[in-house]
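Lesson 9: reading folded outputs for more than one chain in a single document. The general rule is that every protein is listed as its sequence immediately followed by its structure tokens, and records are never interleaved. Here is the first one.
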Amino acid sequence: MSDGEALTAVKVVGICGSLRRMSYTRQALSVALQGAQDIGATIRLIDLQEYDLIFCDGKEDESNYPEDVFTLRREVREADGLILGTPEYHGSFSGVLKNAIDLMGFKEFEAKIIGLVGVAGGTMGAVNALNGLRVIGRAVHAWVLPEQVSIPKAREVFDATGALQDRMIERRLQELGRQVTRFAYLHSSGKAREFIEVWENAPTNPGG
């Protein structure tokens, strides 16, 4: 079996941290997931607006938790790679994404490959939001890709229907999805030496 054929066993899940009906974050995640699918990965988009999630209160008794909390945990645990997408709000990532992450833990994230996508209305992009997610990735013992995609001035990048207009950003999103897939495969297939070599030669983050 070739590596290309083996990639079909990789499952990549995107988590959308935006509840807006016409969400640029959701559109960007879809493009990144398409990049993963193009090289063979099985993909799934977790749209948090479709989940009935309780606000995380730190209580140990989960008997009254909605079933969707356990569904979310299961879907993330089953993933080999994750792509987290968020709008930037007040210099950070969205509260709905933080709450979803807080409802999970090491069982869902440890040793997973994570790619990051952020969308912002301003010219500075979503770098601060993605930096915050990168810190969380380290805290839950995940492998966060050095390359990330921060999209500034979202209204100029997407058209009225939500379709992405910037081909360079489209290519970067697709490559992020492919990177998550490749690293997830190498990490889960026992190819430790090749994983380290590819990781060390991964593109440096261009700052957005």
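And here is the second record, again sequence then tokens.
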Amino acid sequence: MLALLCSIVCATAPTAAELAAAWQDLVASGAARVQISLPSPTADDWRTLASGTTIARRFRAGEGAMNRVLAMRFIDQPPVSIWLAILDGKHAGLPPEYSEWQLGATPTSKTLYQHLDLPFPIADRHWILIANSNRELYRDSGRTAWERSWALDPRGAAALADLPADVRAKGEGAIWTPKNRGGWLLLAAGWGTLAVYQLETDIGGWVPDHLVAAWALSTLAKLVDKTTALADREVTHYVAGHAPLYTPDGVLIPRY
């Protein structure tokens, strides 16, 4: 009975005050090192998160800034499990209109070409993303904050010259997107993780960014649900024989 009681107590999510306190510690000590500026949750948001509900909304990060979509959830898994799910993203499955090719990778970064098929008469879109782990934030936070962010290749469309000929041919006629920037931030909170996902995107052409943001917002709950499900199964998936994955500072994560 005592063991059962302990398991019930240990499985209780942090309170709104505890989540807010963990967040304020990050804001006070690590905000300058995050790659994607931090949102400002309200007291109502903390109560919502403490109840186990996902927050998903659209907002502007500052005067003149473009639309950004945000998702936050407390997940009852340690940061490392969610991190594995994010890095092991090929299992998440892309929507059928997306295709991608990996162009290069290191323990803390990855370069991806992505192509979006759109219905006629809208031209297809494509881009090259560079994703990086935030080594400094991870170390300076005492390994409590894990961030993986991405942005367009700074060379712009000129980076397409690096593509293999067959991949480059698939993108003929596609428009290079002018904005695609976002990231995951995982913050240890209690025995679990406060997961934060943010995205700013503009697909260019005549499609305004607020319509793109509205579409992205509609997909957030499914994205967080899928990531949570992948995190739940990592203990039986990231085992001997799996390709190596690494912490934000490039240290191999031991397989289960």
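What the second record shows: Residues 16-93+135-147+179-237 form a domain with the Alpha-D-Glucose-1,6-Bisphosphate; Chain A, domain 4 fold (CATH 3.30.530).
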